[in-house]
UniProtKB/TrEMBL annotation, chain B:
It is a multi-pass membrane protein. Belongs to the cornichon family. It comes from Colobus angolensis palliatus. Keywords: Membrane, Transmembrane, Transmembrane helix. One of its GO terms (biological process) is vesicle-mediated transport. Its main location: membrane. This is Cornichon family AMPA receptor auxiliary protein 1.
Length: 1225, 121
C-alpha cells in the first residue's frame, strides 16, 4: 500500500514492442497520398517524386512545414482532384510560414497579404501560370533538393552497405514510402529502389543546406515534371564544389540558371542587398532573383536576430525603414512576433524568424512562396548593410550558424560550402567585433566545438557581455551596484531580455534559444556552497514544444547518443579525433558511427563536427521503432460536455460546436484521426457516430455508479469516414438540451467512462464543466467561505478535496490520455480539486469565470478564440520528456503539468506548444574540473501524423567560481518564474503565508548576501547588482499577484487558476502575468516602430506600474497577458477619443467597451496595429477592457499598478524599506 | 528468574523489530507503523516506562507523518505524483536509513532488556 509509484504506468511499460510498419506508416502516408500519387506514375520522374511524399510524411506536423503546403497547392492547381488535400493542408497549418500563402495564392487571394505589397514573387508568377512551374519554384524544390544530396551521397559511396543502410531507414520510418517507390523503381537503373526510401533522410539534411539544396531542388522538380529527370540525376552527384553543382543542375533544369552562379560570388550579396534596400520588384525582373533568394536565405541564418528584423522589413516592403530596424537591438524581438502575425497563427514563436526558418526543411515554404521575407532577412544578415548586427541573445539560433557559414563566406572568402564554418567568422566578426573586442573566436579554429574546454573565463565574460540588446552594457554593467532606494525608475523603458550566457562567441551562436530554454543563473556556480552563499534559486525554465518556424529535422539510421548517459549528440560535445567524441554530460568517449562520418551538409566525408546535429542546439530526430512501445497512436479526440441546466444556460455549447465545425478539418491528425463525443448531466450520454448510420444515435447510460460503454466500437469514430454524422451532431447539439431541467452533474462517472473509451488508444479528452460535480464518484462540496476571500490570514482549500481526480489522471496518464479542462463557471467549482485531472495527465486548464454567452460577450469571444487555437495547434501524443545535465548537477522538483515517472523522466500523455515547465537544480558535486555545463531536454513524442519524433534542446552555460560572477549572470525573470513555481508548491503543501514569507526572504537573503560579500559600498543603502535590480520589484509583483495576494478579495477559484497558470505557463507569458506592461498609447508615434507584415507597429516605451505615471490627459494600455486594459483619463485629448475610440468626447464613452472600432485614422491604425501585434504574440486571446477613469471597473485596472500602495500591501518603496529593515536585522 | 509479562514483551519486540528492520528498508509503511504501535502498547501494559519513553518520539513522528500525508482516499503515505521528485525521494530514503539505525539499536536494547528482566526477576 505504501509502495509508491509503480502502479499508474503498467500499460505503458507493458506494451509490445511493435513493428513499425503497417498501420502507422500507411496512416501517415495517406494524407499525403493523393497528391503525389499521380506524379509517381510518370516513369522517369519516380525518383524525385518520392521525395515529396516522403517529405510529407515527415513534416506534416510541423507548423513551418513548407513542403506540404507547397505540394498541396501546387498539385491542386494542376489537379482538380487534389483540392481536398490542399484544403486539408492549408487548414491544418495555419501557422505555416509565408510560403504557404504563396502556394495558396491561387485559391485564396486573401492569404497573400504579405506578398501583395512586394512585387509579385517569381514564385507566384509561376504558380499563376498554372503549370508545374509554380510548384517547382515553390516548395517542391526543396523536397527534391533533399533527394539530390542523397543521390550524390550514393554516388560517392557506391558501396552496397550504404544502400542497405538507407533502405533500412526507409523501412523503419517510412514504410509506406518504401512501398510506393519500390513499385516505381524499376525504371531507374542508377538508383535502386532501396535508395528511395533513404531520400527522406536526404530531405532532412537538405533542410540544413537550404541554400544549396534549394537551387538544386528546382531543377530536379522541373525535370521530373518534364520527364527529363534521369539526366538531372546523373550530373548532380558528381561535382564536389556545390556551387558548380547548382549551376549544372540549374542549367539542366533550364530554370534560373543565372542566379546560382551568383551565389558563390561576392556580387550575389550585393544583389541581395539591393533587393533589400531597393524593391522586391527588381528581384522579380531577374530570373536570378529566385536563386539569389535561396542563397540569401542561407545567409540569413548567420545573424539570426538581425535577420528577423530584416524579414519584417521585407514583408512590410517599406525599404526606408529597414536599415534602422536592423540596427536596433530591440527590433529583433518585435520581429519575432511578426512571423506569427503574418501567418495569423496564434502560436508563439519566440525567436525564430522567418528568415532563419528558411534554412530548415520547414522553411521550404518560405523559399518557394515566401521568399521575400527570406530575402530581406538575408540582406539584413549580410554583413554589408549592418556593420554591427549582433546576434541576438534571445534568438541565438544554432541552426543559423550552420547554414550561415555557407552562404556568406563564399561571397567573401569564395570558399566552397563545405568550409562554411571558418568562413562564418568574418561575418561574425563584423557583428561581434566592436562589442566583444577581445573574445572573438580564434579564426584559425575551425572545429569550433572542440575549443570550448580551453576558454579562459575572462574572455568569456567580455564576449558574453558584448552588446546584446538587453543589457547591452559591457560586463561590468550587470554587476554595477544599484542603490534601489535611490533609483526612481528602476524599470527599463524597453522590454527586459534574457541575459546571454558568458560564452565564447562560437558557442553563443550555437546555444539554445532562451525562448525554449533558460536557466536562472547563466553563470553556474562551481559548488553548492557557492550557490548557497548567493542565495539564489537555481533551475531551468523550459518551453520545449514551442512553435518554431525553423527546426532542423534529421532522419538517420542511427541517432547518435552517448553510450552511458544516452545524451544525444549536440553542438557542445568535443571530437577527440575523427572517430571519437566525448560526451559533454558524462565525459565518456564514444565512437562516431560510420554513418555519422558523412556530412550531408557539405556532402563530404570525415567531418562529423559539421553535421546538422552538431551545428544546431535545437533539432528534431525522426525516431526509429526502437523508440516505440507500440505502433504510433492515431490522433484521438474526445469531447466530454456538461449539458446540465447550468451549462445550457451559460450557452457555451453553441460556441464550442461552432468552433468545432469550423475547425474540424484543421484538427491535427492523419487519416486515422478519431473523434468522439459524450455529454452528461445526471446521466451520461454517448453518441454513436458509426459510418453508415443515417443520423447520430444517442445512447443514455443512467447507471452512474458502474459506468459501462454501450457500444465501445462506434463511439470513437474516424473523423473522415463519419464527417457528415459528426457535423449533424454538432449542428444539433446546442439545441438538444435547451429545455433540460437537470441540474446535477455527474462529472466523475463521465470521466470514468471517458477513460474507458480512451484507454485502448490514448489521446486527448476535452472536458467542459460548468459547476461543481454533484453526483457519483468524485462529487465535491463547496469549500469556499466567501467571507474569507479577503482574509489576510489563512487561505484554505488550495489543495484538492479528494484524490479521485488525481487517481483518474494517473490512470489516464498510464494510458497516454490527457485531460484538458475547460471550466466555465460563475460559481465556486472547486478548481483546486478539478484541476488535478489535468495537472497529472499533462493536460491544460482553461478557466472562464462568470461565463455567459450573452451577458458576458467578451468571455464568449475569448472562448471562441481560445478554442480555435486549442483545436488547431500542434499536438504530440504519448510523449515523455527527459532532462539531462552535466555530471555533478542534479535535478529535483519539477513544475508543470505531467506525471513524474522517475527522477528525471516526465510522462506527458499529450504535449502542446503552450506548455511550459520548470526544474529545480542542485549541485551535488563540485564542478571545478569543468568550465562548461550543459543541459539537454529530449522530448519524445508521436506527432499527429503518427510519426515518432524526438525534439532535443541543448543549453550550454559557463561555470564560475566567484560570487560576483554568479550575480553577474542572474536571469532575473527566470529566477522569478522559478520562485513563483516554488511558492505555489509551498502554498499548497504548507500555507499561503509561508509562501509569501519565502518570497520576501528570497529577496532579503539574496540582497543581503550580495551586500555582505560582493559590494563593498556603504551598507546603509539597499544595494543590488544591476542584474538583480528588478528582483524586488518582481517579487512585490508576485506578492500582489492573484495567486499570492492577501487582503484583497480574491475568489478561491481565481486564485487556484492563477496558481495553475504559474505552474504551466512558459516564461514569456508568465512574466506578463506577474508584471504587466504599461504603455501610453494616446501619443503613439512611428519612432522606433517595427514593421510586421505590411503594418507599422509602434513601440511605445514601457511605463512603470504606478499611478504617478498616469496622467489625466493620457490613455494607457496595460498588457496583463490574458487581459488588456485601456485606461482613458478624464482629460484625455478629444482627438484621441474621437480618432481611436470613435466617440466624440470622454463622457460619451460607454462603461463597457471591449473593442476598438476600425476607424480610418492614423492614430486608430497605430493603436490597433499595436494591440493586434501584442495579441498575436500569445496563445490565448486576451480580452480588451476599456476603462474610463471614473468607472467602477477602474479598480480592476488599478490593482495591477503594483508599485503603488494598497490598503493591504506595500508600495514598492515601502517594500524596499521593509527588505532593508530585514537585512539590517 | 521468571518469565514475566515484561520479558514476554521484550521478546515480542525483539522479534518484531527484526521485521521492522526490513520494513524500514522496504518502506512498508502501514505494517511498520502498526507493529511499532502494537509493541508500544505492550510496553505500556508492562509498565516498562523507560522503554516506552524511548519509543514515544518515533510513535509521535509516525502519527504526525500519517496525519499530514497527502490527500488520498486509500491508505498509504506516498503520493505517486510527488514521490519521484528527487528531494522528496531523498527525504524518504534518509528517513528509512534513520529508522533502520534506530531499529537496530533498539533490537539490541530489547535483547538486553529481556535478559535484564529475566535475570532480575
Amino acid at each position: 500500500m505504501s509502495a509508491p509509484a509503480g502502479s499508474p504506468h503498467p500499460a505503458a511499460s507493458a506494451r509490445i514492442p511493435p513493428k513499425f510498419g503497417g498501420a502507422a506508416a500507411s496512416g501517415a502516408a495517406a494524407p499525403a497520398g493523393p497528391a503525389p500519387a499521380p506524379h509517381q506514375q510518370n516513369g522517369p520522374a519516380q525518383n524525385q517524386m518520392q521525395v515529396p511524399s516522403g517529405y510529407g510524411l515527415h513534416h506534416q506536423n510541423y507548423i513551418a512545414p513548407s513542403g506540404h503546403y507547397s505540394q498541396g497547392p501546387g498539385k491542386m492547381t494542376s489537379l482538380p482532384l487534389d483540392t481536398q488535400c490542399g484544403d486539408y493542408y492549408s487548414a491544418l497549418y495555419t501557422v505555416p510560414t509565408q510560403n504557404v500563402t504563396v502556394n495558396t495564392v491561387n485559391q485564396q487571394p486573401g492569404a497573400q497579404q504579405m506578398y501583395s505589397r512586394g512585387p509579385p514573387a517569381p514564385h507566384i508568377v509561376g504558380s499563376t501560370l498554372g503549370s508545374f512551374q509554380g510548384a517547382a519554384s515553390s516548395a517542391s524544390h526543396l523536397h527534391t533538393s533533399a533527394s539530390q544530396p542523397y543521390s550524390s551521397f550514393v554516388n560517392h559511396y557506391n558501396s552496397p552497405a550504404m544502400y542497405s543502410a538507407n533502405s533500412s531507414v526507409a523501412s523503419q520510418g517510412f514504410p509506406s514510402t518504401c512501398g510506393h517507390y519500390a513499385m516505381s523503381t524499376v525504371s531507374n537503373a542508377a538508383y535502386p529502389s532501396v535508395s528511395y526510401p533513404s531520400l527522406p533522410a536526404g530531405d532532412t539534411y537538405g533542410q540544413m543546406f537550404t541554400s544549396q539544396s534549394a537551387p538544386t531542388i528546382r531543377p530536379v522538380k522541373d525535370n521530373s515534371f518534364s520527364g527529363q529527370n534521369t539526366a538531372i540525376s546523373h550530373p548532380l552527384p558528381l561535382p564536389p564544389p556545390p556551387s558548380q553543382q547548382h549551376q549544372q543542375q540549374q542549367s539542366l533544369s533550364g530554370y534560373n540558371t543565372l542566379t546560382w552562379s551568383a551565389l558563390g560570388l561576392p556580387s550575389t550579396q550585393d544583389n541581395l542587398i539591393r533587393n533589400h534596400t531597393g524593391s522586391l520588384a527588381v528581384a522579380n525582373n531577374n530570373p536570378t532573383i529566385t536563386d539569389s533568394l535561396s542563397c540569401p536565405v542561407m545567409q540569413n541564418v548567420q545573424p539570426p536576430k538581425s535577420s528577423p528584423v530584416v524579414s519584417t522589413v521585407l514583408s512590410g516592403s517599406s525599404s526606408t525603414r529597414t536599415p534602422p530596424t536592423a540596427n536596433h537591438p530591440v527590433e529583433p524581438v518585435t520581429s519575432v512576433t511578426q512571423p506569427s502575425e503574418l501567418l495569423q497563427q496564434k502560436g508563439v514563436d519566440s525567436s525564430s524568424t522567418t528568415s532563419s526558418a528558411s534554412p530548415m526543411p520547414n522553411s521550404y515554404d518560405a523559399l518557394e512562396g515566401g521568399s521575400y521575407p527570406d530575402m530581406l532577412s538575408s540582406s539584413a544578415s549580410s554583413p554589408a548593410p549592418d556593420p554591427a548586427p549582433e546576434p541576438d541573445p534571445a534568438s541565438a539560433s544554432a541552426p543559423a550558424s550552420a547554414a550561415a557559414p555557407v552562404i556568406p563566406q563564399p561571397s567573401k572568402m569564395a570558399k566552397p560550402f563545405g568550409y562554411g564554418y571558418p568562413t562564418l567568422q568574418p561575418g561574425y566578426q563584423n557583428a561581434t567585433a566592436p562589442l566583444t573586442s577581445g573574445v572573438q573566436p580564434s579564426n584559425p579554429v575551425y572545429s569550433g566545438f572542440q575549443q570550448y574546454p580551453q576558454y579562459p573565463g575572462v574572455n568569456q565574460l567580455s564576449s558574453s557581455l558584448g552588446g546584446l540588446s538587453l543589457q547591452s552594457s559591457p560586463q561590468p554593467e550587470s554587476l554595477r551596484p544599484v542603490n534601489l532606494t535611490q533609483e526612481r525608475n528602476i524599470l527599463p523603458m524597453t522590454p527586459v531580455w534574457a541575459p546571454v550566457p558568458n560564452l565564447n562567441a562560437d558557442l553563443k551562436k550555437l546555444n539554445c534559444s532562451p525562448d525554449s530554454f533558460r536557466c536562472t543563473l547563466t553563470n553556474i556556480p562551481q559548488t553548492q556552497a557557492l550557490l548557497n552563499k548567493a542565495k539564489l534559486p537555481l533551475g531551468l525554465l523550459l518551453h520545449p514544444f514551442r512553435d518554431l518556424t525553423q527546426l532542423p529535422v534529421i532522419t538517420s539510421n542511427t541517432i547518435v547518443r552517448c553510450r552511458s548517459c544516452r545524451t544525444y549528440i549536440n553542438p557542445f560535445v568535443s571530437f577527440i579525433d575523427q572517430r571519437r567524441w566525448k560526451c559533454n554530460l558524462c565525459y565518456r568517449v564514444n565512437d562516431v558511427p560510420e554513418e555519422f562520418m558523412y556530412n550531408p551538409l557539405t556532402r563530404s566525408y570525415g567531418e562529423p563536427h559539421k553535421r546538422p546535429e552538431v551545428q544546431n542546439s535545437t533539432v528534431e530526430f525522426i525516431a526509429s521503432s526502437d523508440y516505440m512501445l507500440r505502433p504510433p497512436q492515431p490522433a484521438v479526440y474526445l469531447f466530454v460536455l456538461d449539458v446540465s441546466h447550468n451549462a445550457v444556460e451559460a450557452g457555451y455549447l453553441t460556441i464550442l460546436c461552432q468552433s468545432l465545425l469550423e475547425n474540424l478539418d484543421k484538427l491535427p491528425g492523419d487519416s486515422r484521426t478519431r473523434i468522439g463525443f459524450m455529454t452528461f448531466d445526471s446521466t451520461i450520454h454517448f453518441y454513436n457516430l458509426q459510418e453508415g448510420l443515417s443520423q447520430p444515435q444517442m445512447l443514455i447510460v443512467s447507471d452512474i455508479d458502474d459506468v459501462f460503454l454501450p457500444t465501445p466500437d462506434s463511439l470513437l469514430v474516424n473523423l473522415y469516414e463519419s464527417k457528415e454524422l459528426i457535423k449533424d451532431l454538432l449542428n444539433a447539439l446546442p439545441n438538444m438540451f435547451t429545455n433540460t431541467r437537470e441540474t446535477h452533474s455527474a462529472l466523475g462517472p463521465a470521466l470514468q467512462a471517458a477513460f474507458k473509451l480512451m484507454s485502448p488508444t490514448g489521446g486527448r479528452v476535452s472536458v467542459f464543466q460548468t459547476q461543481l460535480p454533484s453526483l457519483g464518484a468524485g462529487l465535491l462540496q463547496s469549500r469556499e467561505d466567501p467571507n474569507q476571500r479577503s482574509s489576510t490570514k489563512v487561505v484554505q482549500h488550495l489543495g484538492p478535496a479528494t484524490d479521485f481526480y488525481k487517481k483518474l489522471a494517473l490512470d489516464c496518464s498510464g494510458q497516454q490520455t490527457a485531460v484538458d479542462l475547460f471550466l466555465l463557471s460563475s460559481q465556486y467549482s472547486d478548481l483546486a480539486s478539478l484541476a488535478c485531472m489535468s495537472k497529472y495527465s499533462a493536460g491544460c486548464i482553461y478557466y472562464y469565470p462568470s461565463f455567459h454567452y450573452t451577458h458576458n460577450p467578451s468571455q464568449a469571444e475569448k472562448l471562441q478564440k481560445d478554442l480555435k487555437r486549442y483545436l488547431t495547434r500542434k499536438i504530440g501524443f504519448e510523449a515523455v520528456m527527459r532532462i539531462r545535465c552535466t555530471k555533478g548537477l542534479s535535478m529535483h522538483t519539477f513544475h508543470g503539468n505531467f506525471f513524474v515517472r522517475s527522477t528525471d523522466l516526465l510522462s506527458l500523455a499529450n504535449i502542446n506548444p503552450d506548455a511550459g515547465f520548470a526544474v529545480q537544480l542542485s549541485i551535488e558535486e563540485s564542478l571545478t574540473d569543468t568550465s562548461l555545463v550543459c543541459f539537454q531536454t529530449a522530448l519524445l513524442y508521436t506527432s499527429s501524423k503518427g510519426e515518432r519524433r524526438i525534439r532535443v534542446h541543448t543549453l550550454c552555460l559557463p561555470v564560475v567560481s566567484s560570487l560576483a560572477d554568479v550575480y553577474a549572470g542572474v536571469d532575473v525573470q527566470a529566477a522569478i518564474c522559478l520562485l513563483a513555481n516554488m511558492a505555489v508548491d509551498r502554498s499548497i503543501s504548507s500555507s499561503l503565508s509561508d509562501a509569501r514569507d519565502a518570497l520576501v526572504n528570497a529577496v532579503v537573503d539574496s540582497l543581503s548576501a550580495y551586500g555582505s560579500t560582493v559590494s563593498n559600498l556603504q551598507h546603509s543603502a539597499l544595494m543590488a547588482p544591476s542584474s538583480l535590480k528588478l528582483f524586488p520589484l518582481y517579487v512585490l509583483a508576485l506578492l500582489k499577484q492573484k495567486a499570492f495576494r492577501t487582503g484583497t478579495s480574491t475568489r478561491l477559484d481565481d486564485r487556484v487558476y492563477a496558481m495553475c497558470q504559474i505552474k504551466s505557463q512558459p516564461l514569456v507569458h508568465l512574466m506578463r502575468m506577474i508584471h504587466p506592461n504599461l504603455y501610453r498609447i494616446d501619443r503613439l508615434t512611428d519612432e522606433g516602430a517595427i514593421h510586421v507584415n505590411d503594418r507599422v507597429v509602434p513601440q511605445p516605451p514601457l511605463q512603470k506600474l504606478s499611478a504617478e505615471k498616469l496622467t489625466r490627459e493620457g490613455a494607457f494600455l496595460m498588457d496583463c497577458g490574458s487581459v488588456f486594459y485601456i485606461w482613458v483619463g478624464k482629460g484625455c485629448d478629444n482627438n484621441f477619443i474621437e480618432d481611436v475610440l470613435g466617440y466624440p468626447n470622454f463622457a460619451s464613452i460607454p462603461q463597457k467597451m471591449t473593442h476598438l472600432p476600425e476607424l480610418d485614422t492614423l492614430s486608430s491604425e497605430r493603436a490597433r496595429s499595436f494591440i493586434t501585434w501584442l495579441r498575436d504574440s500569445r496563445p490565448l486571446s486576451p480580452i480588451l477592457h476599456i476603462v474610463k477613469d471614473e468607472s467602477p471597473a477602474k479598480a480592476e485596472f488599478f490593482q495591477h499598478l503594483i508599485e503603488d500602495r494598497t490598503e493591504a500591501a506595500f508600495s514598492y518603496y515601502e517594500f524596499l524599506l521593509h527588505v532593508q529593515q530585514q537585512i539590517c536585522k | 528468574m521468571a518469565f514475566t509479562f515484561a520479558a514476554f514483551c521484550y521478546m515480542l519486540a525483539l522479534l518484531l523489530t527484526a521485521a521492522l528492520i526490513f520494513f524500514a528498508i522496504w518502506h512498508l509503511v502501514l505494517p511498520e507503523y502498526l507493529i511499532h504501535a502494537f509493541f508500544c502498547v505492550m510496553f505500556l501494559c508492562a509498565a516498562e516506562w523507560l522503554t516506552l519513553g524511548l519509543n514515544m518520539p518515533l510513535l509521535a513522528y509516525h502519527i504526525w507523518r500519517y496525519m499530514s500525508r497527502p490527500v488520498m482516499s486509500g491508505p498509504g503515505l506516498y503520493d505517486p505524483t510527488t514521490i519521484m521528485n528527487a528531494d522528496i525521494l531523498a527525504y524518504c530514503q534518509k528517513e528509512g536509513w534513520c529508522k533502520l539505525a534506530f531499529y537496530l539499536l533498539a533490537f539490541f536494547y530489547y535483547l538486553y532488556g529481556m535478559i535484564y528482566v529475566l535475570v532480575s526477576s
